[in-house]
Every structure is written in C-alpha cells, then in structure tokens.
Design goal:
single chain, 0% helix, mainly beta
C-alpha cells in the first residue's frame, strides 16, 4: 500500500491509499525495510555465471 503526501503540508500523509502492482527495483544499493507476503527474490540476471572446471584424469 502506498500513502500519499499532502501537497499543502509535505510533513503529513493523507488517508488516500492505493495498492501497487509489480514493482521492479534496480540499482547498486537497494535496502528492504519491511518485506511483505508474496515477495520473492529472483536470480541476478547480470551476474556472470561461474564456469565449471573440467577435471580430466589419465588412466
């Protein structure tokens, strides 16, 4: 839920609210203050995958 700020007094919030749908957050620093239900972490699509070392043995 999102609270609106009163345009006449920026230190006050109004009683108007609305539900947010899907929110995509991007950035180098994202802090999560209070997680809610139906929230899940996804894999980082920009992270480089670690390459597996191929080990060969001579027998």
């Amino acid at each position: 839920m999102w609270l609106f700020i009163d345009p006449n007094d920026l230190s006050q919030t109004t009683e108007m609210t609305r539900r947010l749908g899907l929110v995509v957050c991007r950035g180098t620093q994202i802090c999560l203050i209070c997680p809610s239900d139906e929230m899940e972490e996804i894999a980082n699509p920009f992270a480089e995958e670690e390459e597996e070392e191929i080990v060969t043995t001579n027998t």
